[in-house]
């Protein structure tokens, strides 16, 4: 995904080369963030100063994270969503400030704060992996639902199958409720399926690949 470049200057403010202050985000701001999740917002600015991540629920902007830009304008904001943060729709933007003056701001992005993700129990690594094989680990997750949706372990026992590009099943495992799987397969690309839930993975010989199987609900 290409960088999201947003130019938002204050009239009369220019860099040494005559350009207006500009914020370049490495990737778009998230559409959903979850309780207990750490959000990282990275990018560059053309002017040195303080970079802030701001949140708005009702029109008033609140600073939720701030950092000084680096020597060459790079920044990496980190926002840790605390337990008890109110769930619901929000707007997010990144702002560049110097000497108390806002130099630039990205366009406000519609986002939402959702409930904390519920993870499956960690997988049990395989004890014996043949030469040339790798292993795929992950869990079956419920994704979606009423806005802002959930991201949680399915909580039921299930059977997951890894099918290779030839259409042949390479590995199948029956997994207890709340647990994760560990499928030993030859190196290659696979489709993961458990009933109507699907995922994909590329296994590398002698290595672990993390790939969940998602159950998308409206």
Describe this structure in words.
It is a single chain. The chain has 218 residues and is mainly β. The chain folds into two domains: 4-114, Immunoglobulin-like (Sandwich), CATH 2.60.40.2550; 133-217, Immunoglobulin-like, CATH 2.60.40. 0% of the residues lie in helices and 55% in strands. It has no helices and 20 strands. It has strands spanning 4-7, 22-25, 33-34, 38-45, 50-56, 61-68, 74-80, 88-98, 101-105, 109-114, 133-138, 140-144, 150-153, 158-164, 169-175, 181-186, 188-194, 197-203, 208-210, 213-217. The strands form five sheets. Strands 3, 5, 6, 8, 9 and 10 form a six-stranded mixed beta sheet that branches. It has a four-stranded antiparallel beta sheet with strand order 1-2-4-7, with no helix packed on it. β17 (188-194) and β18 form a beta hairpin. The protein is elongated. The two termini are 26 Å apart. Residues 1-18 have low confidence and may be disordered.
Give a quick rundown of the structure.
The chain has 218 residues and is mainly β. The protein contains no helices and 20 strands.
Fraction of residues in helix: under 10%
- For this structure, what is the CATH class of the largest domain? Mainly Beta
The major pleated sheet works out as:
6 strands, mixed
Compute the number of structural domains.
Answer: 2
Q: Gap between N and C termini, in Å?
A: 26 Å
By oligomeric state, this entry counts as single chain
Under the CATH scheme, the architecture of the largest domain is Sandwich
Q: Write the element-wise H/E pattern from the N-terminal end onward.
A: EEEEEEEEEEEEEEEEEEEE
Report the count of strand segments. 20
Average pLDDT across residues?
A: 90
The stretches of 5 or more residues where confidence is low (pLDDT under 50) are 1-18
Class by alpha and beta content? mainly beta
Number of helical stretches of at least 4 residues: 0
Approximately what portion of the residues adopt beta-strand conformation? over 45%
| Shape type | elongated
Examine the coordinates and then state which fold CATH places here, giving the name of the CATH topology of the largest domain.
Immunoglobulin-like
